């Protein structure tokens, strides 16, 4: 059976679920537990990565450098990973992560915009760091398009490409087609990052491995926005049951997950009516919280908001569109009410 590299973004993707407010103590505690379990790679930072802390997408409790420094002190036996999205992450942000001891970098972009990663990837490779490309919202392009974008990242120096199902929209065959094409048509390692909107995180991850993926992501207790991420401890247990080597001590990992539930996770992520619709609509999982809040303010159904956002093909960073959609749905409801009142008055 294949050796699978597990990458744990609990301290980055999980930050979405707590409005990027993970504290120094929380980061140190979980990093130490992940280190004891032998999790090979631990990713740390603001939910949207380096340089993203802002009023627009949420101000973090700690700076990028503080988060990385705290984790670095605990990760004595495993690698520290930093994530950046060009536009948020700028070269000085990369420099900060380099100075704080990040071992591996991921550079992510929307699945059709790999061109934006060239400068960042080239810069990091010049500094001798492994770089993995991340194609986010990967359901929003064809298999052929995904291969084309991955090849660009490969030409920029990426040693791996990660298929990120940011909306939890992919079904098992969707994952198979994407991963098998990337394995066959690029020279990079291929990874999969799932979300639980339709409860397929682990199943999709195993399908990815069966098609040749060698990198998988998961978070403790599924800690992440909306329905949450692929649940790490379940994923590792299933991989071990299937005979795949991860190098992780399962008991220690289960203890790390228990710690995460006690100290990090305010509410265990669940697949509920709204997050299911989010996945079906193909909308970024991080929109769950603002959609619920704005829908309540406007007195509209959050499920209708998600389907409308899906039709507009919104991506992360377009939160202002939620307001537009909610206002339009409210106006439509009011028009319908007026029409019904006129009909009633005419009948009377």
Structure at a glance:
By secondary structure, the protein is of the alpha/beta class. It has helices spanning 24-37, 64-74, 91-99, 118-126, 143-155, 172-185, 201-210, 232-241, 250-263, 273-281, 288-298, 302-311, 320-347; strands spanning 5-11, 41-44, 79-84, 104-110, 131-136, 160-164, 189-193, 215-217. The protein is globular and about 75 Å long.
How would you portray this structure in words?
Strands 1-2-3-4-5-6-7-8 form an eight-stranded parallel beta barrel, surrounded by six helices. Helix 1 (24-37) packs antiparallel against helix 9 (250-263), helix 7 (201-210) crosses helix 8 and helix 12 packs across helix 13. The chain is built from 13 helices and eight strands. The protein has 348 residues and is of the alpha/beta class. The mean pLDDT is 95. The protein has two domains: 5-263, Alpha-Beta Barrel (TIM Barrel), CATH 3.20.20.70; 273-347, Orthogonal Bundle (Helicase, Ruva Protein, domain 3).
